[in-house]
Amino acid sequence: MKIDESLSRLEVITKRLGQEEIPLDEALALFEEGITLAAAIKTSLDEARLRVKKVLDKAKDTFLIEDFDVQ
Questions:
Q1: Burial of 28 (0-12, 13-18, 19+ CB in 10 A)
Q2: Distance, CA of 65 to CA of 71 (rounded, Å)
């Protein structure tokens, strides 16, 4: 599953978990799915960050690169 698809699914899960009337079994299943998706998204973003770093390392001294914080 692509990152954007995973993020969309995670948003659906979050909205459903935020509803008042949700059976415990469904909530637990959605929570487990959400945790799995979040971990996969983090892995994909870490891999993308590494790819960007490799590309920038190859272009060393061509660009001024500044770190930024994502919050």
A1: exposed
A2: 19
pLDDT digits over 28-60, tens only? 999 999 999 999 999 999 999 999 989 888 887
| Averaged pLDDT of the chain | 90
Q: Is 70 helix (H, G, I), strand (E, B) or coil?
A: coil
Q: Are 13 and 38 in contact (CB under 8 A)?
A: no
* 3-class DSSP state of 50: helix
pTM of the model: 0.73
Mean pLDDT (whole number) for 11-22: 95
As a dihedral over the C-alpha atoms of residue 10, residue 13, residue 17, residue 21, rounded to 10 degrees, the angle is 170
What are the boundaries of each domain within the chain?
3-58
